[in-house]
TrEMBL record:
The keyword Cytoplasm belongs to this UniProt entry's keyword annotation: yes
Record-linked InterPro entries: UDG_fam1 (IPR002043), Ura-DNA_Glyclase_AS (IPR018085), Uracil-DNA_glycosylase-like (IPR005122), Uracil-DNA_glycosylase-like_sf (IPR036895)
Pfam families for the chain: UDG
One biological process term in Gene Ontology: base-excision repair, AP site formation via deaminated base removal
Protein name: Uracil-DNA glycosylase
EC number per UniProt: 3.2.2.27
Source species taxonomy: Bacteria, Pseudomonadati, Bacteroidota, Bacteroidia, Bacteroidales
Family the entry assigns: Belongs to the uracil-DNA glycosylase (UDG) superfamily. UNG family.
PANTHER family the UniProt entry points to: URACIL-DNA GLYCOSYLASE (PTHR11264)
Species, as recorded: Bacteroides finegoldii
Length: 220
């Protein structure tokens, strides 16, 4: 199957695109766009891939579902466009960065500036019905994004994987911890952040690891 995606990712993932499950997934997603309000816009589904080529990835942040509210999700996990109210989880991420590194808390929730530096924030499910969290779970996206994690683990070295919350922590088994740094804690959601996300210092730990490997750190 021919999928419109950045070329280095296409080369890595073509074998997934050719599998029967992906064909079924594409048929499902297309039918959903025809009959319901689906997020993000079709051309934004692979936005994080198109913005951060395979060899440029330094830090992987794993999420679960896209934001279900129209105007928020455009293909980058946790990120929202300029001018959109910063969601609670992202506000807590910024708060931890402020406590960890002393960086001022941004007024915009747009994380494109991270992505251009090699941060790869990816949800395990890449589409959702508007106002229906989790409505596209178990349709094939998880198989695909698990393959993405495995590919990054196998083909790259010295990456940082940030796994926040019980769902993301389950992905640890896909990652070679001898080659990569895996950082885990609770989810930054307002419901759980105070139970370990605040004070986790993942951002300084990530930068210290990258520096130790001779890799330029992230300006969080």
């Amino acid at each position: 199957m021919n999928v419109k995606i950045e070329e280095s990712w296409r080369q890595q993932l073509q074998e997934e695109f050719n599998k029967p499950y992906f064909e079924k997934l594409v048929a499902f997603v297309k039918s959903e766009y025809e009959r319901a309000h689906i997020l993000p816009l079709g051309h934004q589904i692979f936005h994080v891939f198109n913005s951060c080529p395979f060899e440029k990835v330094k830090v992987v942040i794993l999420g679960q579902d896209p934001y279900p509210n129209p105007g928020q999700y455009y293909g980058i996990c946790f990120s929202v466009p300029d001018g959109v109210t910063i969601p609670g989880s992202l506000a807590n991420i910024f708060k931890e960065i402020n406590q960890d590194l002393g960086k001022p808390i941004p007024t915009s929730g747009n994380l494109d500036r991270w992505v251009t530096q090699g941060v790869f924030p990816m949800n395990s499910v890449l589409t959702v019905r508007a106002h229906e969290t989790g409505s596209h779970r178990n349709m094939g996206w998880e198989i695909f994004t698990d393959a993405v994690i495995r590919k990054l683990s196998d083909k790259r070295e010295n990456l940082v994987f940030m796994l926040w919350g019980s769902y993301a922590k389950e992905k640890r088994s896909l990652i070679d911890t001898n080659k990569h740094l895996v950082l885990t804690t609770v989810h930054p959601s307002p419901r759980s952040a105070e139970y370990g996300f605040f004070g986790c210092k993942h951002f300084s730990k990530a930068n210290a690891f990258l520096q130790s490997k001779g890799i330029k750190e992230i300006n969080w």
